[in-house]
Amino acid sequence: MSEYKFFSGIAVASAVCLMLSYNTCYASGGPQVLPSFKSDRARVKNPVPRDRVLYGQSSDPFETVNRGTWSFNYDYLDRYALRPVAHGYRDYVPKPVVTGVHNFLSNIHEVNNTVNNLAVAEFGDSAISLGRFVVNSTIGILGLFDVASHMGMEQKRMTFGTVLGKWGVNSGPYMQIPFVTMQTPRNIVGVMVDDSYMPWNHISWAWRIAYYSLSVLDSRAELIDREELIDNAVDPYISARDFYLQYLDAQVVGREGIVEAQKAKDREDQKNLEQYMDEIDD
After folding, report:
1. What whole-number distance in Å separates Cα of residue 233 and Cα of residue 135?
2. What's the pTM value of the predicted model, to 2 decimals?
3. Which distant-in-sequence residues (6+ apart) come within 8 Å of 71 by Cβ?
4. Mapped to the 3 state alphabet, what secondary structure does the chain carry?
5. Which of 61, 90, 73 is nearest to 240 (CA)?
6. pLDDT digit of tens for each residue in the chain (282 aa)?
7. In 3D, which of 17, 27, 24, 68 has the Cα closest to residue 48?
């Protein structure tokens, strides 16, 4: 029965994802004044309509709500909790330990990579992912050492969210979720499926909490070198949103596809800016 409920939930979530992918634009366009309780850098007029198509056929129809959540996640949760812990972790924990934790978590995801690469008919990449898991789990001592990379087996990362993208499912509307931060409907479904590969029924809650805590810490520590890009941005919300959606889209369309998407985005931004300037002149 539990398996039935799980797969029923996946089916419903997938259906919602599909519907949202094709119905992402409901808000009216035009300039908007951002809510006054946001940070000073966000108090600007946005000449770009919030219903415009973003990377991965996404949009931001809930921008007002998203900005409020972003303010909580970025200005408070990250600044006073995640960021200090991540910096302390990277600066004071011995580098071999930090690398070992990253390798261990990455090795667990090789199970996902193996199955998800099969789902998009990347049989060679699936075989490499399986080989990496076997080698690193044994010779690499439960994945603490990335022996497979030294043997020439490069990681072939593939999330189920990317699989859905390759199957033609759009990202859906961009969302800011409290304590979780950036997400899209497609990625939420992908995370649900990826998590189902883990045998949680045989793992205690203590180990689950430890796993998720390490995952969050490892992921946040990897973003330290990119903090200045967001901190120094004129509008950190827009910059973080576009970086995130561009990253998700790049996993689907590859490097060449994202270059073309960037060119199309630049052309659309220029067009919107010109329209905005015409409205001011009028």
Report:
1. 42
2. 0.72
3. 37, 38, 39, 42
4. CHHHHHHHHHHHHHHHHHHHHHCCCCCCCCCEECCCCCCHHHCCEECCCCCCCCHHHCCCCCHHHHHHHHHHHHHHHHHHHHHHHHHHHHHHCCHHHHHHHHHHHHHHCHHHHHHHHHHCCCHHHHHHHHHHHHHHHHCCCCCCCCHHHHCCCCCCCCCHHHHHHHCCCCCCCCEEECCCEEECHHHHHHHHHHHHCCCHHHCCHHHHHHHHHHHHHHHHHHCHHHHHHHHCCCCHHHHHHHHHHHHHHHHHHHHHHHHHHHHHHHHHHHHHHHHHHHHHHC
5. 73
6. 444 444 444 444 444 444 444 443 333 333 333 333 344 444 344 444 555 678 777 889 999 999 999 999 999 999 999 999 999 999 999 999 999 999 999 999 999 999 999 999 999 999 999 999 999 999 999 999 999 999 999 999 999 999 999 999 999 999 999 998 899 999 999 999 998 888 877 788 888 899 999 999 999 999 999 899 999 999 999 999 999 999 999 999 886 555 555 566 566 666 666 665 666 666
7. 27
Question: What tokens appear for 215 in the block?
Answer: 């995952």
Length of the chain counted residue by residue: 282
Angle at CA 56, nearest 5°, toward 224 and 216?
Answer: 30
